[in-house]
Amino acid sequence: LGGSVENWQPNIDAFAEKFRGYALDLPGFGRSDKPDVPYSVPYLAEFIPEFLAAQGIKKASVVGNSLGGAIAVHLASAYPDMVEKLVLVDPAGFGTESHILLRLISVPSLGEILVRPSRKGTTKVLTALFYDPSVVTKEMVEVGFEIACLPGYSRSFLATARSVLTIRGTKGAFVKSTLERSRQVRCPTLVIWGKEDSLLPLEHGYKAVGAIPEARLHLFDACGHCPQIEQAEAFNLTVLPFLRAEENGP
Questions:
Q1: Closest among 247, 231, 235 to 87, alpha carbons compared
Q2: Distance in angstroms (rounded) separating the CA atoms of residues 136 and 214
Q3: 188: left (phi > 0), else alpha (psi -120 to 50), else beta?
Q4: Which end of the chain, N or C, is surrounded by fewer C-beta atoms within 10 Å?
């Protein structure tokens, strides 16, 4: 939610040694177009089969972080023949508990104020993503600020956020839908969680592996909401063997 392909810069080179990888900004995010549409997890998930078809890809392994994880679950349940393996990194949708910042964004008018582009605001949001605040660099802040200033960003961000969040937390209907779809996932799945995730608690990770039939859980110590950034080397060394193995990983 609010992320971009830059969130995967620490991983792309390592993955490219073994795979052809695609990192994409979904509609409304990053530098992709921001059409005036009813943003939701189903809408965003439907974009991926079209993207894969345009690239001539019949089947792929899918890695998603946070909201991207919920989108990946939706994709794998709706298009099982297109998803070979699934990696869910602190995925959303497995519990109603969420960070106060996310809940406040859902409030009309207040959310519009909170997402006004500023380097200070960008720094605050980025800091909430990590256990170690020193992970946040000036370059990360500048990229985040630049993207937040793009036309249509605030509108698409808030519309997406409000499709899954309320002031009380993650919408119960969204959690119910994610859990139901998780039970339909039939591909090998690796769930990854940062133990110190302050946005979505570790308890959600246990719910995820309990719902997905072929799932296992890998935890990262001293790590927040984005292990692919905060523990990039360990993340790569964990995910790559899982994707390469013929079965469900070593």
A1: 235
A2: 34
A3: beta
A4: C
Residues in the chain: 250
Nearest to 46 by CA among 24, 71, 28: 71
Smallest CA-to-CA distance from 187 within 103, 67, 66, 62 is with: 62
What span, in angstroms and rounded, lies between the C-alpha atoms of 15 and 104?
36
**Where residue 246 falls among pLDDT bands split at 50, 70, 90?**
low
Residue 75's contacts (CB-CB under 8 Å, 6 or more residues apart) are 45, 48, 49, 62, 82, 83
At CB < 8 A and 24+ separation, what contacts does 16-24 make? 18/240, 18/243, 18/244, 19/61, 19/243, 22/51, 22/55, 22/60, 24/51
DSSP labels, 229-250: HHTHHHHHHHHHHHHHSSSS--
* Separation in Å, CA 214 to CA 18, 61, 81: 24, 15, 16
Distances in whole angstroms, Cα of residue 148 to Cα of each of 3, 17, 131, 210 = 10, 32, 23, 36
| 160 token code pair | 């997406």
pLDDT digits (tens, 9 = 90+) for 1-13: 999 999 999 999 9
The Cα 221–Cα 223 span in angstroms is: 5
Average pLDDT over residues 109-119: 95
Give the pair of three-digit tokens for residue 248: 């469900």
Q: Tokens at residue 138, please?
A: 């000036």
Cβ neighbors of 221 (< 8 A, separation 6 or more) are 195
